[in-house]
Amino acid sequence: MLMEMACAFTGHRPVRFSFGYDDEDEKCIRLKLMLAAQISRLIESGVSTFYTGMALGTDQWCAGIVLDMKREYPNVRLTAVLPCETQASKWSPEQRERYFNTLADCDDVITLNTRYTPDCMRIRNETMVDRADFLLAIWNGKPRGDTAATVRYAKSRALPIVLIDPFSV
What we know:
Blueprint: E1 5-11, H1 26-44, E2 47-52, H2 58-69, E3 77-82, H3 93-105, E4 108-111, H4 120-131, E5 134-138, H5 146-156, E6 161-164
Parallel strand pairs: 1-2, 1-5, 2-3, 3-4, 5-6
Helix pairs in contact: 1-2, 4-5
């Protein structure tokens, strides 16, 4: 019997990328294609569960890719791990619509807090790493920020990390 494995996603928000919130930009499309290729390799190597924190940018791009791949790989599961119920409360209507539509398509949604707390994002990231066998990180290599902290935490847990440099696209 094949052991089921899981992968968590982490990465930058759109403001960190040269293309910002423009999902149709050539660089964003290339990054998403790189993500899709990497996610496909993970599935082919036995990963069947993916964890997304549903933040804008990387988390939601990866979630969308996994949901698209469920057509070809129906055994794949997507779990959203939300830091708090109010995560999307300050987002634009379009961002909120995408967020809630994606949540509706997830196989499971885990909400860790009712309201925002200063450490809820860190707790969300560590919860995903603790449940995963791999971390897929879209990270610029800089030592500050939530993505860097999540990569450090995964390293402290000896988790294999698949790194994609967003400046390589």
